[in-house]
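Q: What would this chain look like folded?
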Amino acid sequence: MVHSNFVENVYRVDERLIQQDVILNSDIVADMAASLNFSSKYVGTAEIKIGAGYTIRLENEQKNLYKESVKCEQHTRPEDAIFAIGQARGGFTTTRIGETISENYGLHMSPDRSFQFYKRESHNRRSDEND
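A: My prediction, written as structure tokens:
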């Protein structure tokens, strides 16, 4: 499994492009600690539940995948974890899964990009002010 803290060309539902600079795991961990609404997703200060018994630990600026508290082998395929999580969420089949992990960060999972964090952005939609 490839380790990376960089996300490029990750699309949201509305097809807006997300391009972020490198996101440090230490920034994500600090935000996790401050995001009480998402505290149920955390196993520890640097470990996040992502479903189906899988967690991601942020260790020394790497993201490591665990299954039932056992570190997955490097050759573990992201699509296997994505399939298991999809089944646990209700049996749907998908190749990509997103997860909100804190007030300011989300996690994007796909075979081509593996497990990538991104900074959540909110965009205010305004109606036409010329009405």
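The chain has two helices and ten strands.
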